[in-house]
Amino acid sequence: MMMMMRMRTARVEVAVALASAVALALQVALVRVLTIAQWHHFAYLVISVAMLGFGVSGTALALLRRRLAGRERAWAFASAWGLTLSSPLCYGLSQQVPFETYQLTTQPVQLAWLLLLFVILSIPFFCASNVIALAFLAHPARIGRLYGVNMAGSGAGAVAAVLMMEAFPAHWLPYLLGAPACAAALLLAPRRLDRPLVVAAVVLALGPVLWPGITPPRMSEYKDLAYALQAPDAEVVAERHGPLAKLTAVDSEQIRLTPGQIVGYPWEELGPIPRQIGLYFDGGGASPIGRFDGDLSAYRYLDYTTGALAYRLTDARRTLIIGAGGGVDVLGALAQGAEAVTAVDVNGDVFDLVRTDPTLRAHSGGVFDLPGVRTETADGRAYLRSTRERYDLIQVSLLDSFAASAAGVYALNESYLYTVEAIREMLDRLEPGGAIAFTRWLKTPPRDMLKLFATLVAACEQEGIADPGRRLAFIRSWNTGTLVLTESPLNEEQVDAARAFCEARGLDLCYLPGLDRDEANRYTLLDSPVYFDFAGEILSGDREAAYADALFALRPATDDRPYFFNFVKWRALPELTRMLGGDLLSFVEWGFVTLLATLAVSVVAGVVCILLPMATLARRPRARRAKIPVVIYFTALGLGFLFFEVAYIQRLLLFLGHPIYAISVVLAGMLLFAGVGAWQSSRLLGRPTRALLAIAVGLTVIAAGYEALPWLFRTGAGWPGPVRVGLSLAALAPPAFLLGMPFPIGLSVTARRDPALLPWAWGINGCASVAAAPAATVLAMGAGFRGLMIAALACYFAAVYVLTFVNRR
Amino acid sequence: MDRARIGRAALPLCLVGLAGLLALAGLLAGDVVAAASRAEASARDEADDPYAARRAAMVEKQIARGGGLFGRTAVRDAAVLDAMRRVPRHRFVSERQAGAAYDDRPLPIGYGQTISQPYIVAIMTELLQAGPEDRVLEIGTGSGYQAAVLAEIVDAVYTIEIVPELAEQARRRLAELGYDNVAVKEGDGYYGWKEQGPFDAIIVTAAASHIPPPLLEQLKPGGRMVIPVGPPFQVQRLMVVAKDEEGKVTQRSVMSVRFVPFTRAGEARSPADD
Fold this sequence. Notes:
heterodimer, A: alpha/beta, Rossmann fold, Growth Hormone, Chain: A, 3 domains, eight-stranded mixed β-sheet, 33 helices, 13 strands, globular, B: alpha/beta, 2 domains, seven-stranded mixed β-sheet, two-stranded antiparallel ribbon, 7 helices, 9 strands, 22% strand
């Protein structure tokens, strides 16, 4: 009998774990699918807002609590069913909504479609949240355990999503996830199951697959891939789904991607550029795969792009290419006489596809298996840290597509490749006489290359290099710029070679030792030689004034604030608007706009969710007094948990290298340890305030230790992958364990005060968690990860303080 | 107590929102009134061509006047404005779309291609600075509208289109309208039209990552090329490429043009009027 009881009660925990796992895996999958269909920043916005389903669920349960009383289990069962069906159906329905990001500024109706998408996609999250919150309501004594399995389940979902996307296209996941959701429903079924019910359940779960069938993502007609496919001869020759991107290889004579202009290219003499197959990432920016038949002379055309400047300044026998893509730069390096080329790319699927797909292998002449060529699947920065090799040339290619770069969609992404510390590590990996070369798309008004120049100079100064101005060369074409930093000062010969290189190709000099101002603006004419002027300010002028006067944020990025791509400067916005007039819309950094929109929508929705049940709670004497402390407590936890997690995991990103797998394992580990903490938290309920204070102090101690992490990770950068993952998990375990406790402690205390507050608290926490992600990015941009960590601790101490008010009897 | 506090906060917020909406409505109303008065002025042309008034309004409102929400530079070249007033744009789209031909936006013409927004055609033509004696090469014929506008101004237009059906359609259309100084070729514009070159001016209608070297070669010393650079569906920079008498090539980014999204569904849309 006792045994039976345990079995039955454990069912709820398993169901909660399953529902949590489904919600997280679905979230990951939907971001992927929406990125393929539209753009990453759009996916980020939509899914963040859809996650507000968690907050709405808390509010709904708070409002309907009295009607649900005593029937929580049945409603949890219904919600799990809702999750089973809504996961595939809401995804399918979302692909019928004719939303188009590009028309948002021209068609008001698009706002309605966007709103509809928010609503449709929040339904599965609403259902999943109901399952969890109803379990809390039904078993208030087991809140710690239930929250523990909620966390652990989410962790498992993160890993499962990545593994599933390795095996299936991302848009299958909403259908596949119907199975675990169905299992959760069966576990919550109110009475003993008979066979027909199980059969009916499984058939229903399969329903959306059988009818209307698996819906592929509806790709925007404005994506680069859609554009490329309009050419009469365009043909998709290979495709690959993966957790990082969907790769599509398109063969068409119209694909002619060069890293910039080739004005001086004597094409009649050297022949047309070799035919290309375009490799599209999520239907966006393409990387070319050049045809190669063993004759490297066909790749001389690359010697007419800005990037080839590097070969005039160093004898590049050993070359490292960061962001190898389809491999054209590898051929370019070989054509320049490189003996050894290391091609690094974060997406290993690229190497694998070009190697194994028969068409691509034949077309590319097995570029990645040519003698002397080696591939490494890693984040560029992590590779630099882990390798002991030295190079004559470290080349950072045009990693992002022109489109993404122009629209500023990376503004909210951290990048550890363009920080002062990254440049210092690159310098450390150079052979004597070696060089680092960056090529990027130019933007109007100028910003990227200016910031990069300042970053290189700052790195030199930190390395104790007294004369950075003697080691830099900077040129531009009509759409690209190349910056070269050399290990030793440039001699007269090299400076002359750089001049001759530009002269012959119609490229403009922006900076070179001893360059005259009137040499700096000859071919692609700017109103004034802004690049030359800025370089002068940085090297020998009033640097602080140059930063202060700039219309954009041009101060170098650092590992603590790795937002190279964020150029928004609040104070300069009015002036920028005045200068550009109505053209401003063209220069909007969309990533940043998305971030603010997400923050605004989640704050507004959060306020509504918090206010709605106020009236019903006001009638309950025990709840009334606790309202404000409960709001503060659960908002603080929602923010604090995520701030701490983000700040901590950011440190680990650099260390882990192979992002997607390592990160999902670490994220899962974090959630799992938090789950263990939550499970154990019920022991502390005797003196909750004191326990919470101890937790906050513990976190502070850990945060102080956090400063030591970069040192530890630099030491261990070369260690094998599994060791690094293990070490990361070990570093995560203590803070995660502590982070898992405050929520269930608070929830139990709240339930003791008045159970009516419980779903409300859950909803508040849900909304705060959604707002926390963009808030963390905004904070980190302004105050760095150190500042974010301090904000996280402040949240926890605030929580300790208000808990005393909730805990009053 | 709580509700009162919320009420107090909500009022100023609502007022700000309302003020914003009113301002927007004011802007729109201004545009509408101005358009109406101009339409009236050119109503007398209506007799011989049912679209004449709209065409005149298009030139006045969209092209000859600068400013507006996206900070347009006005087109001032009289020859260009005249050409834009003469070429019957509605004949370059399907009959179903004729009603929208003079709207301030691109329209789909099938095969994934579009007829550019009137303003873009006008500004690119102006930037080309081509004269009555000039031979002009166009890459990307599309509907043939840009070629017709050029044909009104220059001596001869050579235009290349990669989609065979579009090339054929444009050829027929231009012949029907009597543009006998336009030659249409089907093919890959990247390599230009060597047999007819060199050209005084070259206009490229699709953005490119680089200037096709063959085109640069077919440009006469002293000639000009207009070419957009940038991602296909976003803000593009219009570049004017000039080749001086010694053959030195310089380029200048003249302005940014914002891509205006079009609806491909429009291809199947019912006629707006007529």
